[in-house]
Model the fold of this input.
Amino acid sequence: MPRKGDETKNAFVQAFRHQLETTSLDKVTVTSLTKECGVNRQTFYYHFDDMHSFLQFSYRRFVGEIFLAVKATNNKEDGIRAVVSCVEKEKALFVALLESTEYSWIRRDLLELTSEFIWTRYGRAITRRGLSDKEKGFFIRMYALVIFEFLEKMINGYNYSSVDSFIESVNTFFGPYLVID
Done:
């Protein structure tokens, strides 16, 4: 059963996502969020230190949803499809986070979380490949960059023929390292 504080935080996140459908991130304010939620500003500040901490909470929630979707898959191809599906569903949020100039930390942190996820999901398989720690780190970072770039291009309207062709490209380059025995 969710606690009252969780419900309030969820309401702020839903209001945030709703506002991003019609306005830019820079126009979303504590006032606009509290007004949409029907609470006062003190309620917002009870749960978050400032707008920055709220944005961190919101995008970590978004990334957490992606992780849960991917965790439910059985292979990397379905995992990539799950990521694409989540990003398409939350396109307004993803675009706002990536395009925000005031919050440049978001891009860095999203990439870091992608790398962390790849290690969590595929770390044992990568370790069994006999790579040095430096090689493993490089490989994971490159894989995260490839996925991240694909998502950015997809969001910005770049016409990949299909997600399947992207998966085929990823498998060609990274496949031998991500085969889970």
Summary: The mean pLDDT is 78. The first helix runs from residue 4 to 20. DSSP finds nine helices and no strands in the chain.
